[in-house]
Amino acid sequence: MPELYNTLLSNNKKWVAEITEKDPDFFINLSKGQAPPVLWIGCADSRVPANVITGTKPGEIFVHRNIANMVIHTDMNMLSVLDYAVNVLHIRHIIVCGHYGCGGVRAALSNTQFGIIDNWIRHIKDVYRLHNDELNALTDENERFDRLVELNVIEQVLDLAKTSIVQNAWKNKEQLWLHGWVYSLENGLVKDLDVNFGNDSELPVIYKLNA
Ligand code: CO
Questions:
Q1: How far is CA 153 from CA 9, 21, 32, 107, in A?
Q2: To 10 degrees, the CA torsion angle through 163, 167, 168, 171?
Q3: Active-site residues: which are they?
Q4: Ligand 1: distance of its center to the CA of 172 in Å?
Q5: For a Cys-Cys bond, which of 31, 42, 157, 206 suits 180, CB 3.0-4.6 Å?
Q6: Distance between CA atoms of 100 and 105, rounded to whole angstroms?
Q7: What's the gap in Å between 69 CA and the centre of ligand 1?
């Protein structure tokens, strides 16, 4: 067996020993059920682990990750996670967390064919088209890249608000807040994009669904 593979298993034993030394009932209590207050929709990038960067423990964040933290309405995986998080777990906050230097967003900025992933990436190109004027006005390539990362997060937050799942939760007077963050790989800090939706008042009328 490769060394790294064995290290993963021995690390797991060390981790359990450390936790149970401080709190012998930690796993017994956690095994009884979960009530996380937060749903995290983040990039699959290995450098952006939800619990680690927010200093949270197992049981505190319900997590969904995919390439470039997308909320795509035909994605059964995302919809199932969202439905379960909102309607069964009754989570209070949904955070879409993108990150600067995102490979998915970088791919969307290019015209290169990458394979089947081009179909996924195309949704980011749609975000570009929607904000074409703002992005094209940025002459610095890095600035344009960073801004597309931010705009992509903002659009995914809006895409969450467009779902019947989120709109019905608001209609049922659930306390449900949507937020957009961008994480910096370079310094580990999160930038809150200040897109906070707690109701559908700012959602364009065309997207509003009747009860
Ligand atoms: Co990424």
A1: 35, 40, 34, 16
A2: 180
A3: 43, 45, 47, 99, 102
A4: 34
A5: 157
A6: 9
A7: 7
Residue 188 buriedness (CB in 10 A; 0-12 / 13-18 / 19+)? exposed
pLDDT of residue 2: 80
Torsion of CA 55, 58, 59, 62, to 10 degrees: 80
- Structure confidence at residue 211 as a pLDDT band (50, 70, 90): confident
What distance in Å separates the CA atoms of residue 30 and residue 42, rounded to the nearest whole number?
A: 23
Using the mean position of ligand 1's atoms as its centre, give its distance from the Cα of residue 159 in Å: 18
Evaluate if pTM is beyond 0.90.
yes
Ordered by start, the domain boundaries in the chain are: 1-33, 34-207
Query: What CATH code would you report for 34-207?
Result: 3.40.1050.10
